[in-house]
């Protein structure tokens, strides 16, 4: 029995089918659930289903191959693979180069950030020293304009 018809075996009624009164169906092996709503799934056969009677004696023969055409096609395919391989290698090299540049930029930016922080700290120290030097005469009461404060 086809796999799609298993659910419709005798005695496995899921719901009453519209139509004549429930009971054994006229065909052998089909239960009362066979109706217009429950049509078996259509599509390809499974690999275990036997071939149709008309196809049982059919021998599967591959199509004939022209040797000259095979040589031409083989050569073209080889060239195609060479071109694609070269393109892939070029793109791969480009991606690796971008990765390397990004890594170098990241390392370079970390180094530049450290350098910037060091220079900013030195600048703060220098500003503090200059402020202290400028405020020293005021603390002593000396006016740069020539008079006392």
Automatic annotation (TrEMBL):
Residues 17-29 have a biased composition (Pro residues). The keyword Cell membrane does not apply. Residues 15-63, 125-149 are annotated as: Disordered. One of its GO terms (cellular component) is mitochondrial small ribosomal subunit. It is found in: Mitochondrion. Keywords: Mitochondrion, Ribonucleoprotein, Ribosomal protein, Transit peptide. Belongs to the mitochondrion-specific ribosomal protein mS26 family. This is Small ribosomal subunit protein mS26.
